[in-house]
Every structure is written in C-alpha cells, then in structure tokens.
Amino acid sequence: RRRRRLSAFRRRSSRRRSWASRSRGAGGHGGPDGSWWCAVCRCVVLLASASAVGFSGSRVLSASSLAALRAVAALVHPRAAVSVGCASGADQAARALFPRARVFAVASGRWGSGPGAFAARSAACVQSVASQRGVWCSFPAGPCPAGLQPSSSASACFCGTGSGSWASLALAVGLGCAAVVFLPAGVAAPGWLSPVGGGWFVSSPAGSQLSLL
After folding, report:
1. Which listed residue, of 18, 36, 48, 182, carries a Cα 20 to 30 Å from 25's Cα?
2. Are 70 and 97 in contact (CB under 8 A)?
C-alpha cells in the first residue's frame, strides 16, 4: 500500500510540473505565478477524493480560464464520474479532456425544446453531481448577476439572470456541492465564495475543510 501511495504521489507531482509548462504565458491575475499554483494546491485534496465532478463555464474562455480548467481537470480522480453540458467553451474543453464524461445534451430532447430546455439541462447536470456529493468546477467570464444567491431550487437559480454559468454554480452550492471557481482578472466574486488567491475561489459545505497539500 505504501508503494502504491508513493507511486500515486509521484504521478500527481509529475502532472503538476506539466501544468506549469502548459500554462506559462496565460493571462489573468498575473498568470500562473506562485499564488496561482498555491491556490490550485488547495484544491488537490478536495478534487482528488471526489467521486463526482461537474464542469461549467463561459462559452468563450480566456487563455487564463482555459489554463485553470486544464489544471483542475488534472486533479480529478481517474474513477470520478464527470458530468458536463453540450455547449462550447468550458463544456467543450471539459469534454475533450474527459472523453468518457456524461454529456447532458439539449439535442437529446430529454428536456424539451426552446430556451427552457437549456436551463433544465444545466439543472439536471448539477443535480447529478450533487446526488453524489461531488465537486462543481466553474469558469465564468463575467461577474455574478446582482441578487443571485445559492439555492437548492432550480427555478430560483435559473430565473432569467442571463448567466447559465452562475445559475449552475448557485444551484450546485445550494445543493451542498463543494465548488472550485476561477475568475479572470477584473471579475469580482460574490460574497458567497471564498478567495484563495490568484483568481481562485471556493465554496465548501458546512463541516468540511480545504487543506493545503
């Protein structure tokens, strides 16, 4: 067992070194400097033990947000159930990184048609992760809509604010998911997220803690 744990630690260390080489030059919050990587390390324990992980975010990702998504993806346990939507941007990047992910696609017709189908699709994706007490990873491009608060009610979160990324995150937090969030430079976070540095924010369910690696 000790040998297996040591081998796993070495693989994670190797992956962290590869993140640095892939992410150099990314903008946003000064790029992946020491505080950026320190914040990523705070997510290691949370994500490495998660049995389910969901991804959501802007349809147009900045270079810094894409680098952040790739860094988070490398922390996900190989056996974790990954859920993601069918949109471009963050969804598309996550689908490429996790070819076996469960994709919630509006085109399936499962959630009807029209604008409401996209909200219903996103809510179902969040609920699938929350049912397994998973971690929700979010990469919005803009600020949280005014007045939007975490809630366990899908209708309260998807209330026409114009941001599916933030609505999904609010629902995930409201349903008790831990959350890992990256925001580009200049984008303010709502008070219900805790900053950990370098553009990273987290939300942890009551009674749980994020530990430094």
Report:
1. 48
2. yes
Instruction: Report how far apart, in Å, the C-alpha atoms of 190 and of each of 142, 158, 196, 201, 209 are.
Output: 11, 17, 14, 10, 20
Order of strands across the sheet that contains 178-182: 102-104, 81-85, 52-57, 135-139, 178-182, 200-203, 194-197
Please state whether 188 falls in left (phi above 0), alpha (psi between -120 and 50) or beta: beta
Rounded to the nearest 5 degrees, what angle is found at the Cα of 173, between the Cα atoms of 168 and 179? 90
Per residue in 68-115, pLDDT (tens digit) is: 999 999 999 999 999 999 999 999 999 999 999 999 999 998 888 877
- Decide: helix, strand or coil at residue 9: helix
Closest CA to 142 of 88, 181, 177, 188: 188
pLDDT tens by residue, 11-61: 544 544 444 444 433 444 445 556 676 777 777 777 878 999 999 999 999
Q: What is the largest CA-CA distance in the chain?
A: 54
C-alpha distances in angstroms, 155 versus 30, 116, 122, 161?
37, 11, 12, 11
Check if the beta carbon of residue 157 is closer than 8 Å to that of residue 174: yes
Tokens of 141: 């491009």
Tokens read off for 75 = 């922390």
41: buried, middle or exposed (CB in 10 Å: 19+, 13-18, 0-12)?
middle
